[in-house]
């Protein structure tokens, strides 16, 4: 008997529909699969057989043929276990097959019939919603992600629960869910309950008020957060670079619903879907070690997976000890910083991952760390210094909007008691600057202003234009550097609630750009 179930797989961060065709005929017992199934999918045959038997069903005695269409699409996920098992039960007559075409199914099976969570559930659920499936069945472990997606979704814990749902019409189940409290029904409130449970973890134990001194660096962080400008901090060991970077995500405004969904999709693909609920209060913060390889940073692999730059999407990517990173790894950031996305090509498929991150770098002034320190002597040779600084090429430095040099904190500042603004106060100022920009018609971060709109949002007065003309020639600025300076000046003006970019705003922006 023939049956067909509907499912999906995840390619990159996009869901793709997959039809699972099942036919049971006379012949030697076994399961044959076709349709460009990967080793992971092929290995599901034994899992599915044991799951069906241990769920109390009789396994078919005939020859089972499973075809996964479209045949040109590579299937590389355990999420097809559950739809294949459902197809076999439908072909055996245990499920009314006329209902199957209305349901979308994803889930991995354990040998005892339990349904396990899968990676990439959120983009698959969103795709099945988009193509108009009336009901979607997902693993209980993916309930939090499903709650973000919305729709007529049901979370199951075992194969038998799934088969019971599949025997009913999705519309009838939805109507029943409105009148009765069905535990398996996924509701938006499920996500809110998880948010409330974890709300005490959102702020953490770190605050900018804990950092003594470094007021100039704190202001630079606030400007960088308000405009999502790249930031490089240079200073001797122990001056507070890592402490400041670690608190930066708390200064950034809360994510919009769209940003939350984008970030949750990335987390889902990376197998961290449940964590994305916590991100409503604090943006992602990623700090890879300097020994990381190119694939770990930008993503890749035979079946591409997100790298650190994608996991930092809508958040902060902190590269500590940037001059200790491999030069090729650093250079791989050129295009992602500009285009806000990274594309990997594998076997004729283009896998596009978003990476609209705020890059924050920290470095010592030299290999030993004490160049320019008034209390410690630098022991580096000129060759050491040149080799160290060559790690950051001109094109990379040109893409960093702001550079600051941090001095060692004096004893008086350390014990003085005054700690400056708190993280909450800094975030309030950042949010006020974004609101001011929105009232002028500019939504989003200033670093994302397209070049062709700079004249509209960064128009200069006569004196300001003369000032930038002199600066452009005196400092041999590139067109990219000039445009980035204007964007930083626009952010500083927004923080001051100034309609116009003034000379002092331009001077401060140039000061951040031209530091060594």
Q: Top keywords for this entry?
A:
3 domains; four-stranded mixed sheet; 16 strands; Rossmann fold; 24 helices; five-stranded parallel sheet; alpha/beta; Ribosomal Protein S5, domain 2; 516 residues; elongated; 41% helix
What features would you describe in this structure?
The protein is α/β, with parallel strands linked by helices and about 525 residues long. The chain has 3 domains: about 1-195, Ribosomal Protein S5, domain 2; about 200-425, Rossmann fold; about 450-515, no CATH class. About 40% of the residues lie in helices and about 15% in strands. It has 24 helices and 16 strands. The chain has helices at about 40, 45-55, 80-90, 120-130, 145-150, 160-165, 170-180, 190-200, 215-225, 240-245, 250, 255-270, 295-300, 310, 325-330, 335-340, 380-390, 395-400, 410-415, 425-440, 455, 460-475, 480-495, 505-515, and strands spanning about 1-10, 15-25, 30-35, 65-70, 105, 110, 115, 135-140, 155, 230-235, 285, 315-320, 340-345, 350-355, 360-365, 400-405. A 5-stranded parallel β-sheet has the order 11-12-15-10-16. A hairpin with a 2-residue loop joins strand 1 (about 1-10) and strand 2. Helix 2 (about 45-55) crosses helix 3 (about 80-90), helix 9 packs parallel to helix 20 (about 425-440) and helix 23 packs across helix 24. The radius of gyration is 28 Å and the shape is elongated.
Q: Layout of helices and strands, plus pairs?
A:
Layout: E1 2-11, E2 14-25, E3 30-34, H1 39-42, H2 44-54, E4 63-69, H3 81-91, E5 103-105, E6 108-109, E7 115-116, H4 121-130, E8 135-139, H5 143-149, E9 153-156, H6 159-166, H7 170-179, H8 188-198, H9 215-227, E10 231-235, H10 241-246, H11 248-251, H12 257-269, E11 285-286, H13 294-298, H14 308-311, E12 316-319, H15 327-331, H16 334-339, E13 341-346, E14 349-354, E15 358-363, H17 382-389, H18 394-398, E16 402-406, H19 411-415, H20 423-439, H21 454-457, H22 462-474, H23 479-495, H24 503-514
Parallel strand pairs: 3-4, 5-8, 8-9, 10-15, 10-16, 11-12, 12-15
Antiparallel strand pairs: 1-2, 2-4, 6-7, 13-14
């Amino acid at each position: 008997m023939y049956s067909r179930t509907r499912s999906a797989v995840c390619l990159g961060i996009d869901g793709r529909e997959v039809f699972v065709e099942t036919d049971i005929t006379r012949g030697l017992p076994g399961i044959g699969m076709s349709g460009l199934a990967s080793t992971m999918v092929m290995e599901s045959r034994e899992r599915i057989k044991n799951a069906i038997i241990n769920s109390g069903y009789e396994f078919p005695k005939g020859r089972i043929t499973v075809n996964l269409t479209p045949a040109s699409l590579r299937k590389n996920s355990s999420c097809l276990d559950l739809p294949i098992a459902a197809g076999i039960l439908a072909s055996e007559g245990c499920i009314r097959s006329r209902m199957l075409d209305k349901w979308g199914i994803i889930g991995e099976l354990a040998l005892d019939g339990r349904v396990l969570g899968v990676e990439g559930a959120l983009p698959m659920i969103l795709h099945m919603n988009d193509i108009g499936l009336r009901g979607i069945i997902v693993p209980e472990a993916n309930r939090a992600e499903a709650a973000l997606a919305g729709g007529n979704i049901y979370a199951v814990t075992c194969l038998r629960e799934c088969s019971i749902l599949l025997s009913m019409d999705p519309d009838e189940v939805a109507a029943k869910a409105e009148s009765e409290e069905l535990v398996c029904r996924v509701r938006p409130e499920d996500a809110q309950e998880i948010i409330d449970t974890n709300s005490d973890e959102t702020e953490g134990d770190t605050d900018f008020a804990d950092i003594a001194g470094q007021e100039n660096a704190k202001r630079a962080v606030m400007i960088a957060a308000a405009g999502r400008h790249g930031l490089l901090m240079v200073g001797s060991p122990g001056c507070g670079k890592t402490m400041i970077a670690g608190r930066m995500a708390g200064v950034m405004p809360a994510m919009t619903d769209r940003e939350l969904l984008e970030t949750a999709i990335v987390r889902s693909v990376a197998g961290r879907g449940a964590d994305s609920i916590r991100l409503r209060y604090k943006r992602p913060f990623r700090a890879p070690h300097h020994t990381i390889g190119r694939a770990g940073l930008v993503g890749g692999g035979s079946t591409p997976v997100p790298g650190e730059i994608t996991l930092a999407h809508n958040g902060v990517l902190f590269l500590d000890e940037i001059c200790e990173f491999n030069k090729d790894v650093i250079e791989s950031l050129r295009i992602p910083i500009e285009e806000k996305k990274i594309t990997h090509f594998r076997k004729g498929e283009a896998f596009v991952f978003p990476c609209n991150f705020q890059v924050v770098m920290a470095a010592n002034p030299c290999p030993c760390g004490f160049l320019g320190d008034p209390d410690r002597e630098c022991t580096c040779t000129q060759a050491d210094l040149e080799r160290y600084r060559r790690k950051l090429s001109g094109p990379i430095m040109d893409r960093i909007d702001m550079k600051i040099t941090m001095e060692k904190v004096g004893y008086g500042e350390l014990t003085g008691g005054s700690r400056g603004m708190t993280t909450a106060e800094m975030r309030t100022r950042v949010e006020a600057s974004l609101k001011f920009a929105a009232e002028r018609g500019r939504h989003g971060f200033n670093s994302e202003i397209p070049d062709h709109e700079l004249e509209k949002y960064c128009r200069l007065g006569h004196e300001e234009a003369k000032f930038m003309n002199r600066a452009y020639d005196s400092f041999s600025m590139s067109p990219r550097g000039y445009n980035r300076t204007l964007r930083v000046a626009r952010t500083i003006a927004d923080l001051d609630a100034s309609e116009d970019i003034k000379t002092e705003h331009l001077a401060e922006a140039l000061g951040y750009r031209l530091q060594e």
